[in-house]
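Q: Okay, next protein. This is Phospho-2-dehydro-3-deoxyheptonate aldolase from Kitasatospora kifunensis. I've checked the sequence twice, so it should be correct. Can you predict the 3D structure?
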Amino acid sequence: MTPSRPETKVLPTSRPGRQSHWYDFHAAQQPDWDDPQARDEICTQLAERPVLVSVDELRALRQELAAVAAGRSLVLQAGDCAESFAQSTPEHAAAKADTVATLADRLAADTGTAVVRIGRIAGQYAKPRSAPTELVGERELPSFRGHIVNDPAPEEDARRHRPQRLLQAYEASRTTARALRERPQRLWTSHEALILDYEVPLVRFDEAAADLFLGSTHLPWVGERTRQSDGAHVRLLADVVNPVGCKVSGSGPIEELLRVCERLDPDRTPGRLTLISRFGADHVARQLPDVASAVRAAGHPVVWLCDPMHGNTYRSRVGLKTRQLSVIQQEVRGFVTALRAAGVHPGGLHLEVSAQPVTECVGAEVADEEQLTTRYTTLCDPRLSPRQAAEVVRTFTEGL
């Protein structure tokens, strides 16, 4: 779909003649808001809110990622599959940041290498879905698309796409971002830049640098379902100076990925573009070498991260979505081997991890699928427990 342009005031600090032009392009996975007039008013309010990041911070992160692209350091990017409004408190932010710090510290200690710490945090409230509806018990309901769009409660009214949630997402993100800033060690924020009605109003123009930047997060990424080279999501990230990410799989031709890279990183700048591999354990060793070699030959000095989660999800015998730790580890090994074969630096990991000892993936302390029901609390896809995540980090370091 091509979403309609909201009737908002001109973005107060956007480049003249470029306001909201991203709405002119096809955008997948957009909500069908139940109140278009309220959506317009809320987009205007978002355009007037303070941004959550600074241009100086974006420059600093790009410098850190440039060191990763050069093979001098690594990345640990981790956090919830989908954040919850109820858990967007300073206390929850601290627990999540501690989890990332523990994993990053282990990665640094095991490799003797500096580690860039990035959270899936302070904005990861939207989720793309494969179908507009889903079965909940015996009822067919609109799919849950993350707290920024609707509520997961199994009721028709709760699943309506309410634009008021855009403001709730902003306030929850701001609360979390403030809590993270009070910590002695920096945790960069990241989320999938999915909902245009949230992201576009938070684009700003930096007068000093004469550049647009996305003020919602440090590192936005485009996902598997929204990375079309001529789509609105890629064009939005192409126009901002943030470091940006893009999920990569074997679902499309290499030529299309190279078009995406050209749009997102036309100047071949180290630290600008991060590619997040999600091929699946059965495909990564065979498909990733050609992809990585093609990107390298095109001159893009990208950071390569391994997302060993999304290509390995299945429905368990107890009816819950899950992932096998052993299969996740298999993909990590294949990722490292494939990039080494292509002469490319394996830059790090992109994991879905809870700060709590959840039982959502099978392996380590979760002995079998029957134990999944013990502490299965995810809003969408299954996350690793901290112990399971530590095992994945160990597998990665052993392969380096």
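A: Here is a summary of the prediction. The mean pLDDT is 95. The longest helix spans residues 90-111.
Q: Noted. On to the next one.
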